[in-house]
Amino acid sequence: MSERNLDARVAVLEEIAAATKEALLDIRVDIRDMRTDLRGEIRDMRLEMDRRFDRLDGEMWRNFRWLLGVMLGGFVGTFGVMAHGFHWL
Q1: How far apart are CA 21 and CA 31, in angstroms?
Q2: pTM, two decimal places
Q3: Tens of pLDDT along the chain (89 residues)?
Q4: What is the rounded CA–CA span in Å between residue 6 and residue 14?
Q5: For residue 3, what pLDDT is reported?
Q6: Euclidean distance between CA atoms 89 and 87, whole angstroms
Q7: Would the N or C end of the chain have less CB density within 10 A of its end CB?
Q8: Can you give the pLDDT at residue 35?
Q9: CB-side exposure of 23: number of CA atoms within 13 Å?
């Protein structure tokens, strides 16, 4: 191998190393940007989930109160019919 051929090969390797370093820096920047975007999206999703759970909690309490009222009314009605049937009233 000649000295000139070796210098040309080293120059090619140095170019490849420089291009690889630039590519890695670009990849790092892209990953950093993706993490930032992902954090924002996750935060937005958490806020939306919190709103939906709050709404669901309110609906469950409304349904519970309605069901409790219907059940109590049913018990009172049933006991009223029983009292009338047993001639307590």
Answers
A1: 15
A2: 0.54
A3: 577 788 889 999 999 999 999 999 999 999 999 999 999 999 999 999 999 999 999 999 999 999 999 999 999 999 999 999 999 98
A4: 12
A5: 74
A6: 5
A7: N
A8: 94
A9: 6
Residue 88 C-alpha from the chain's centroid: 60
Whole-number pLDDT of residue 1: 59
Percent helix / strand / coil, the chain, rounded to 5? 95, 0, 5
Backbone dihedral region for residue 2 (phi beyond 0: left; psi -120 to 50: alpha; all else: beta)? beta
Domain ranges of the chain: 1-89
CA angle 38, 46, 29 (to 5 degrees): 10
Residue given tokens 């999206």 in the structure block: 41
| Cβ–Cβ < 8 Å for 69, 61 | no
